[in-house]
Design goal:
The complex is a heterodimer of chains A (416) and B (168). By secondary structure, chain A is an alpha/beta fold. In chain A, 44% of the residues lie in helices and 14% in strands. Chain A has 17 helices and nine strands. Chain A has a five-stranded mixed beta sheet with strand order 6-5-9-7-8. In chain A, helix 2 packs across helix 9 and helix 3 packs across helix 6. Chain A is globular, with a radius of gyration of 22 Å. Chain B has two domains: 64 residues, Arc Repressor Mutant, subunit A; 86 residues, 3-Layer(aba) Sandwich (Glutaredoxin). The two termini of chain B are 32 Å apart. The chains are: A alpha/beta (416), B alpha+beta (168).
Chain lengths: 416, 168
């Protein structure tokens, strides 16, 4: 199947503006601005069934329709903070197919009446930020960005903004704080960004991959998009495949593709032909799916079905773990990550990740006892449902499912 | 010398990206600018940024302290920041880091004797399919180096040294 998002893999030099235009680029944006009302654009996206690709899977068109039209100006922000361990898809989109992403961002801006949009990139994407600045400048010259676009009253500017190394800034309200020049700490919600966002103004925030879908949906229609994927999860998803896999990388596949097809057909199977022991479908934030039965690999990957395995699909950053991986080691890694990335604002997360890291280090270091494992599980469960944002919650996922589903690994670690 | 005098064009361009009521947004790009040459941000630079943006020096210092890519202390000319997070570790990043320490004769967090390189461990850099990998943070900004080996890394160090005339 031809790619819908990673089209640069089918079309050489798609990050050249002429090549992108020759392949239908900006026709959807021009058509929208000159022939459609803003809410008509939102309706098409709503009808397509597109859900947010950053992890939460919230219906995109519905989010756009929440924009508060009594308070102006409006902003649109692209979340290009891509920091979840195991996720590396947005970077490929922006490098290979930057104009499709920017066109999606422009369409969203038109749909909600924003005349300024920001791309918030993680600071490590320094080179990519400079590259996008060049592409944005080319769009200004070509007349796709600027004042009175296509002779209408609509004007749009896009700016990039670099973060400076903080996982928490992928959380949308922390991102807004950071973009406002403050520490990246999540806000209390409600109010949500569509009513109180950047500089206190109504703001729509979506992930890079979400925006990249939009031009194709506008060009080919909601029904076309809905015909791909599953009833629960329409369209295609970029699966970032990593871990103990022969061919790690990004694979754009329809929702509903099985784990088996992703891992064996596309990923070339497990390194050293070993057995899959567990899967983390949403990066380090994942629950661990136990693959004790081969049939689990035949589970279709969409938001609803993955949930039946006791995990979330999230950003579809599929980390494959084979039988060489011990879960006490893995949990020590993930907890260390979340402890480092906790923003420190709320007590359960700040203290919880700190104490969990002491316990995981002791257990993995061979100096733990059964009581330490029980205490670790206890701390993780106490954190659940009490943190200000999802980071704290995420930090407990691998801990709880690791201890509950891979008891033997922890028994072995504390005996050794 | 002050930022405004040294980089007048850049400072103006940065400020133009944000609305007047959101001027404070410029603090992060201005800090990157202040850090460009020396690799760290000193007190006078923080004070100047605070003055430009009508915020306090404490506000600026809080930003420097919160984000990992800002530094308030001098280190090596280049920081070599190796990802040892879960996906990279599953592809040999921990061993790569150990071997790097042996070859560069430093521990994680230390600077080489010639003051050229500081070796650091960092969190996920979104390049999990191309481990082992690291980024360099130096006078030429931040750059990714992927699918790395010890040999390729040592070659890179030589190239970087030659580029700034520190080659031996």
């Amino acid at each position: 199947m031809e790619h819908i998002l990673l089209r640069h893999r089918d079309i050489p030099d798609l990050n050249n503006i002429d090549v992108y235009q020759k392949n239908g680029g900006f026709a959807a944006f021009k058509n929208a601005v000159t022939k459609m009302k803003p809410n008509e654009v939102t309706d098409v996206v709503k009808n397509s069934g597109l859900r947010g690709r950053g992890g939460a899977g919230f219906p995109t068109g519905l989010k756009w329709s929440f924009i508060d039209n009594k308070n102006w100006p409006h902003y649109v922000v692209a979340n290009a903070d891509e920091s979840e361990p195991g996720t590396f898809k947005d970077r490929e989109i922006m490098e290979g197919n930057p104009f499709q992403f920017l066109e999606g961002l422009a369409l969203a801006s038109y749909a909600v009446g924003a005349t300024v949009a920001y791309v918030y990139l993680r600071g490590e994407f320094w080179q990519l930020g400079a590259f996008l600045d060049e592409k944005i400048a080319e769009l200004e010259v070509a007349g796709y960005l600027g004042d009175n676009l296509f002779g209408t009253e609509y004007s749009l500017k896009i700016y990039t903004h670099l973060g400076a190394g903080a996982y928490i800034c992928g959380e949308e309200t922390a991102l807004l704080e950071s973009l406002e020049g403050k520490r990246g700490q999540p806000r209390n919600r409600p109010p949500f960004p569509p009513s109180f966002g950047l500089y206190g103004k109504p703001t729509i925030i979506n992930n890079v991959e979400t925006f990249a879908n939009v031009p194709m949906i506008l060009a080919k229609g909601a029904d076309w998009y809905k015909s791909i994927g599953t009833t629960d999860s329409a369209g295609v998803k970029i699966f970032s495949l990593s871990g103990r896999i022969r061919k790690p990388g990004n694979y754009e596949l329809p929702f509903g593709t099985t784990f088996r097809e992703l891992i064996y057909t596309h990923g070339g199977g497990v390194q050293d032909s070993r057995k899959v022991k567990a899967i983390m479908p949403a990066g380090a934030s994942s629950s661990l799916i136990t693959v004790d039965d081969e049939k689990i690999l035949d589970t279709p990957m969409d938001y609803a079905t993955v949930r039946t395995l006791g995990a979330d699909l999230g950003s579809a950053s599929v980390i494959v773990l084979d039988d060489t991986v011990s879960m006490d080691w893995l949990v020590n890694k993930t907890v260390h990550f979340f402890k480092h990335e906790s923003c420190g604002k709320c007590t359960p997360c700040r203290e919880g990740t700190y104490w969990m890291s002491h316990l995981t280090e002791r257990i993995h270091g061979g100096e733990g006892s059964r009581a330490d494992v029980d205490l670790l599980l206890n701390v993780a469960k106490q954190m659940q449902g009490t943190c200000l944002c999802a980071l704290g919650e995420f930090s407990t996922m691998a801990v709880v499912t690791g201890i509950e589903r891979f008891k033997k690994d922890f028994d072995k670690a504390v005996k050794a | 010398m002050s930022l405004a005098k040294k980089y007048p064009k850049e400072v103006k361009q940065i400020l133009s990206k944000y609305p007047p009521e959101g001027k404070r947004s410029a603090v992060m790009p201005l800090l990157f600018l202040a850090q460009r040459e020396e690799g760290y941000i000193n007190k006078p630079a923080m004070q100047e940024i605070a003055d430009i943006l009508d915020i306090t020096e404490t506000d600026v210092a809080a930003i420097v302290g919160f984000y990992t890519l800002y530094h308030d202390k001098k280190a090596g000319k280049y920081r070599m920041q190796v990802c040892t997070d879960l996906p990279c570790a599953l592809r040999g990043a921990d061993k790569f880091m150990d071997d790097l320490c042996d070859n560069l004769d430093v521990k994680v967090g230390e600077t080489t004797e010639d003051g050229f390189l500081t070796l650091e461990g960092v969190m996920c850099l979104a390049a999990c399919d191309r481990a082992p990998m690291f980024q360099t943070q130096g006078p030429d900004g931040i750059k990714y180096h992927e699918n790395m080996t010890i040999d390729k890394t040592l070659e890179l160090v030589r190239t970087l040294k030659n580029a700034i005339g520190q080659g031996s």
